[in-house]
Write a structure and sequence with these properties.
0% strand, mainly alpha, single chain, ABC2_TM, transmembrane helix, membrane, 244 residues, globular, 10 helices, ABC-type transporter activity, ABC transporter permease, 75% helix
Amino acid sequence: MSSLGKLVQIETRLFLRDPMSFTIGLLLPAAVLLGLGAVPMLREPSPDMGGQRFIDYFAPSTLVMAVGVIGLTNLPAVLAAYRERGVLRRMRTTPIHPAKLLLAQLIVNIGASLASALLVIVAGKLVFDVPMPQHPWGFAIAFVLGISSVFAIGMLVAAVAPTARAASGLSTVLFMSVMFFGGVYLPRFMLPDAVARIGDYVPPGVQSLLDAWTGTAPAVIPLVVMAATAIGAGAVAARIFKWE
């Protein structure tokens, strides 16, 4: 097995052994969707949502939660802790470059986000017959760009935060903002129009996910914003990241 493969295996075990990461990162979004679906009135069509059920309308917002929990809270805190504890510094004296550890972390956390999103989609479909994304290619593009932009921001937090506590503080502010604009705290149809429009461009771009989910091709500009965010934040994080 290659050194990267071994690191991915180790980081996966550490992720699964952490009750908070496993429970909140993997299971919470699906649990929220199932909990809301257990309320009968939320399974009835509503004129406020164009005849959709609330449970169908809210499903993309749980995907925002699935990506945000892992990309904006778990990833930055772990990387900042590794640097604070000297793990990355010590790895520089070994044949395995610490950049491989960062890559392994990205692989594990992105995989966890994908698993959490898949769990949301499958659970919603099996339990409450929530429709699958009706524009699969548009949904795939929107999700990939959205998750890339969120994880790039998470890496940027890990790059600038001197300690794990600082990373957690920055991540909390960003996470709450993403959840607000993503319609997790309040459904987007209840938000002021200006706030909802801002949410179209805040990673991971919930409106693009919602459009693709309901069968409409996502608008181009929000996707471009997601791509630019991923490239810009990722480039800055790579440039300023400190190993110690």
